[in-house]
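Troubleshooting log. The previous run stalled partway through. Resubmitting the same two chains, unchanged.
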Amino acid sequence: MHLSDFRLHRPTSLPEACRLGKELGPSALFMAGGTDLLVDIKTRRREPSDVVSLAGLAELRGIRAGGGALTIGALTTMEELAASPAVREAATALAEAAQAVGSVQIRGRATVGGNFCAAVPCAETPPAAIALGARLRLIGPSGERTVRAEEFFTGPRATVLGPGELLAEIIVPQAAGSAGSAYLRHGRRSFTSLAVAGAGVWLSVSQGKIAAARVGLTSVAPLPLFARAAGEALVDQAPSEDAFSRAAEVAAGECRPIDDLRGSARYRRELVAVLVRRAFEAAAARAR
Amino acid sequence: MASEVLVSLTVNGDRRTAAIKPRTTLLSLLRDHLGLTGTKKGCELGECGACTVIMNGKVVNSCVVLALDAQGAEVMTVEGLAPGSGDLHPLQKSFVKHGALQCGYCTPGMLMSSAALISRDPEPKEAAIREALGGNLCRCGSYPRVVEAVKGYKEQQKALLDTLPSEHDERDQERDLAVVGHGVTRYDAPDKVTGRALYTADLKLPGMVYGKILTSTVAHGRIKKLDVSKAKVLPGVLGVLTGADVTDTLYGVSPPRYDEHILSKGVVRYVGDEVAAVCAVDEETAEEALRLIEVEYEELPAVFDPEKAIEPGAPLVHPDDPRFKNNINTKVEWRFGDIDQGFAEADHVREQRFVGNRTYQAPIEPHAALARWEHPGDRVTLWSSTQVPHYLQHMIGRTLGIPGSNIRVIRPAVGGGFGGKAEATPLDFCAVLFSKMTGRPVMMVYDRREMFLHYRGRHKQVMDLKIGVKKDGTITAVKFRSVLDGGAYSSYGVITAYYAGSMLPTLYKFSNYHYDGLRVLTNLPAAGAFRGHGVPHPRFAFESLLDMIAKDLGLDPIELRLKNAMTPETRTVNALDISSCEFIATLNKAREESGWREKRGKLPRGKGIGVGSGGFVSGAGYPIYRSDFPHSNAIVRVHEDGHNATVEIAAADIGQGSDTMVAQVAAEALGIPYQCVNVVSDDSRVAPIDLGSYSSRVTLMAGNAVKMAATAARDKIVLSAARLLGCSPQSLTARDGRIFVKEHPSMSMEWAEAARLAFSVGGPVVGTGWYQPPAGLGGGFKGSTVGTSPAYSFSTVIAEVTVDLETGRVQVDRVTDFSDAGTVVNPVAFHAQVEGSIIMGVGETLLEDVVHTPSGNIANGNLHDYLVPSIGETPQIRSRAVDSWEPRGPFGAKEVGEGSLVPVLGAIANAVADAIGTHVCELPITPEKVLAALKAKENLR
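Second attempt completed without errors. Output:
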């Protein structure tokens, strides 16, 4: 099992990377950590003519706090994300989602940007980012734009990214007041298993009532899913097991799972109902 | 397309530069360009962790890192772990001392992950160790020992490598033996912790080239067109083989049912059936050439369900073969006693359908073969990752028309087998044929998906079991029917079908027994012999049904088992002779040790405790093909200086530790220290026939042959000592390197001096030994030979689980295991086998299932979707041996490796049933099935 032949490009700046991506056309692929892409090339799911390695783009690394937001470079590894005190404090769900990915070996290489751009339904960090209300800064040959995390995905393995366009940063807003988040997932094996279902949740509490809440779901739709109604169902409610159970039922209704190797659609809905409730309980405890 | 570029990096402190293609992985750079084969190739997709190295202080799977991304990096591999002064790293010492490895294939990766952990956390707690090793899969189940090794590494900093690990010297039994029964250091451990151990795919011969096999993409079809012309002219391609180029002679495992061609002769019967093969200068070119072969199939109707396959009008898997009418490969009809009378005598009868799963051995080392045709004459050397060097030699010779002894089979280190490497593979055949064709050594290795396609894993069994009991629990009758999904070819399946029924009467006594076995052909990969061969599923069914019956009758499940338990010196209803048997002791001790009485029926909802028992043969009573040769044969040669002895035996160490057992038995019989015995077990040119590592036969059979050979050599040395000491040889004994008068131990001499004397007087001091099972085993009825053995093992497992009642997730918390394995030759190896069985049992019960798409393609042929247990699935394990002595075994020993798996499935299933109040009768017991069972139970209320 070998990698198919490709030309490897190693740009050292973001504009150069974007230019290469555009010039080389759709048969060229960007590579961050490579833990997904190299597997896809080995198994011949993808056979790119060119691979543009982003490893040399220092400007896409690092986590910064400021301006009421946490800004996470797309090349931040899962390990860095899971270990970052700032992320664990202000974007707990994202740290927990990063920790759920693969193994130590994988988390040291896999990047959050790669996790987003692979755009698979079982990606762990996008639902957490969706729950946290994150925005994504995209940079392309003709400039930059910002999209909401939930707007980034257009289908299985498909995103809004245009030719030569890259995901540069994930921007997680810092809510004023008392807020908390959590990510829970169900895998068949303790380590190194894909999520059968997962739930990222966030809520803010003001004067004993939930001011806002958001839910992102893993592996229960063709793309990382924003379960809008589940979050809205909690607004103005007092945080309670009952309220969270009702919201979880709403989420179970919102998701669009399929039957596959890892579980049936029906079972996945049942899991969503459990995971969303438990995640909200954890998030609410953190919001105190 | 892309030209070569230079990469420079520091590997193990050395500056290294290589010219590589940009697509070269770090794994390939290390192994193929720099010759550092200690880093292993297991899955190639970042799933198993065997290729773990440390790059700039972080662990990476080197198979999914581009070598160019390591430009300028500091990389450390297992070869660089030791400080370089000839000493080992404390972790390496600790792994050796704790016996934290078996086949050793995952060990370099485990060590690198552990090394990275202790560099950031010098005193890691268990949770941190588990987290750090979560990405390193070990199929032997060495996890508990690895955890202990990492926890205890600091204590090893000054330790000597060959220190006897006293903490393992548990002496499960008190016998006056000097070497047997002691937890000596594994014979192969130092090589395996340093990366020195060479597995087949690590070998590199001058001029070596590579082969790959093209397999069918349809489940059943006729080859309409097979055009290899483009592949043949691809630069670098040296040869192509199709069905037209290979012999018409069929091969297989059971002589009456040889049914496989090396390459398809026009029909393919499953996705994965071999169609053509290519040999090229490198593996990439061979893979590329496969893609240039044009194949068109006329698709034929296919069948994937064994019960549908026997319905009238079902598509036939072998329509032209009169042996397999109606897709029936093997039919067993056993009738013992009076079944109607038996059920009439019963106060309670219960029957239930149980369904097993298709589980795959999934050794971390892929199958590999390297052949070198040698001139003049039809001679070939074949290095193969095999459990059965002799059967491989026999089958290659028979099929290709070469005398067996012209084929020199060398078995390098084997990275686990579990029954999946117990027959000749298309790799072996094609490597030999290509080597003959090209005159060059030819290496062929399966990738992970190809391993799953080759399969030979566990037969899925659909089982109907009916048991009748009296009020007091006495079993009066057992009726069992099993339909086994055999896949497309026979493989070991005839034997599997008999084993499925033959072992049920070995554990509990009953005299009225019917067994109907039907091994059915389907258009799926062929099932074969997997640890416990045919027995784990029926035993799961039996143990589950016993628990249901116990509940019906208000009996304690252990009491019900004790009521019917096998006792020594018993002939079963199917004419198997049980010799030693301490089954009752395993039940009683497991009950005491686990706190059963305090827990059973008293745990909160969601917590459960369950019991299961099992056992297996200690070696098949008859060989696979008819032969009168002794089953195991050994030569012991004492070296002229008297300081060492070498055992030449072909018993295949596939990681279970048989070389260690051989050295211990030889040392004991010779009367010298363990460290003075060498073992040569890898070369058919050196050692006479041994049938191989299957049916848990090695300790008893090879152990007996070695004991006999060593005793013969010792007798020669004792004779020369007797001459010198002026006493009779009968008055002398040898132990720990000395020979002394039994009654006056002070009258003694050095063993080595006596050995030198013996050599000086009589030339080479050699002893030979052999083992032949007792004649006439079995009952003479059809199939009665399967299940015969010189001895049987017994064990009881008590499992404790926690079930998440909302998600259905099952966690096995604790397992208590008591085994009757006769004398335990090596406690470290014994516990490693038991622990490995328990962890594999967790996987088979809860996680594992090979799934196929509706068109018969494998859906989870990788280690990400096919879930072998990770370190996180490891329960707390307490295992012990009960005191036992098998008169037919060497120093009282019998088997443990397969029998210890058999009880685990039922124990876990019964614990889950205890936790949720209802049984799940279909394996694997997935969270989804647990939830469905809970719902079904609530709906009944």
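Takeaways: Chain B is about 30% helix and 20% strand. The mean pLDDT of chain B is 96.
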